[in-house]
Structures are given as structure tokens and as C-alpha cells.
Amino acid sequence: MLNRDGAWYRLRSTPSFDDLMQLPAAQLRLMVDAEAVPAPELDGAELDAPINGQEVWAAGVTYRRSLEARVDEAVSADPYDRVYTAERPELFFKASASRVRGPGQPVYIRSDSTWDVPEPEVAAVCNSRLEVIGYTIGNDVSSRSIEGENPLYLPQAKVYDGSCALGPWIVLAGDFNPERLTIELEITRGGSTAFAGRTSTSEMKRSIAELVAYLGRDQRFDVGCVLLTGTGIVPPREFSLADGDIVTIRIDAIGSLVNPVRRHPTA
Q1: 124 with 212: CB under 8 angstroms?
Q2: Exposure winner among 62, 124, 134, 249, fewest CB in 10 A?
Q3: How far apart are CA 143 and CA 216, in angstroms?
Q4: DSSP state, 19?
Q5: Alpha-carbon distance 30 to 9, whole Å?
């Protein structure tokens, strides 16, 4: 399904998302232009996350602000200082499709964490050839208390059910410049703003193309993947997400991703 200027369209041939992600980027664009027909029945429909069989990966320490936050939380700051200036970026697995939440669906904070934050990010959607076919909004929910205790705990701080949100849709590459996007984060609590911040992808130290190239080294994605490109907005040390918060991420030319926050039900 496609959204253009607030109106919904579908493709006449009704391929699956995984099928589309196996097409070359140029062919996908031609199909969208040739086969899109209005789908007014979708107005007001609830949206799922724009993902099917794809894995979600993430890049870390791509903004100076992210480096400062990781140094602040860590027992040892040296690994983060070194990766910020190194040729090789930090890349890590974030979520399988079943762990991803869509617009309006709850994201979770860990039951065994005491310091949790959202991480608003531009998400690059890549096909099986690792061409960036489009962009969406990502929320890389993270436990700073667990990661800060020991960098080896990164998977536990990052990977668990409901730790990632994507949406509301995918905007095709070529429709805007991803290097000049404003990203805004607002967290509301009890109807009032508890935290708000803003950054721009122009502040990224590494390019999206560079990150994708490293991700594709020595591994294959048969139906493509999603790469979260890092965050430049980090709430202060005294702030932590709480059950009932509402996280809103807005990105120029893409839209808004809104998710309520819940403490993981195993708590």
C-alpha cells in the first residue's frame, strides 16, 4: 500500500512486500508508477509496521551527541571514543520482524532496567541488493542502565520484544535528500511534555551509503533489511521512560511515528 499526499494507493498486481524487496530499485519505482491505483477503503485504517521478512539492524555512535551520551553512561568510555573516529562503524542486530511494533502499538521498556530511552532515527529500507529503496521512521528503544554497566551487555539492552518501532510508511528514495532531514522527538507524560529535542541528519558523521556498505560485508539479505542510522537526540541522565508515556517522532518528508510506552509485562 502507498500513501501519496495523504491519499492511499495499492498496486494492481498485489505483490507481497517481500516480493517487492527482491526487485532492483529502478524496477520497483517503475512498478509503483505504473500500477498504483486509488484505495480509498484504506482511509482511517490501522497501520502495521512496514516490515515482513526483513531483519532490522542498527548503527551506533553516528552523531556526536550519541557519542557523548554513551560515554556518559559507560563504565569505560574508550570503546565509544574509538568507534566514533574509526573507519569501521558500530553495527548491531536490533530486531526480527516479530519484535517490531507499528504506529500506535506499544513499545516496551525492559522489566530489569532502570534507565530507558527512545532513540529516534531515520531508517533506511534496503532491498535484497542492498540498494536503499526508501526511508521510514525508527525508534530504537534502549536500556542505558544495562548497556552502561558493561558494553558486552549491548544485545540485552537493545534486543527484546517490543524494543523497536517502525512507520508510519516508507517514502521512496529519490523523493527527498536524506542528508538534510530534521528529526524531532517529543515525550509526553500525563498530557504534558516531559522531554523534547531536535536534530538533523546533517549532523551525522557517517553517510547512509557508508553504513549500508559495511552492513553488506560478508552477509546476504534475501528479502532486504532495515537499517536504523543512529540517533542525535538523547534525553538527559535524569530522564527515563515510564509506563504510560507517549513517544512521538517526526521526520521531515516522512511523517510522524507515535507509540505508547509500556513496562514489559514480565515485570
Answers
A1: yes
A2: 134
A3: 27
A4: H
A5: 15
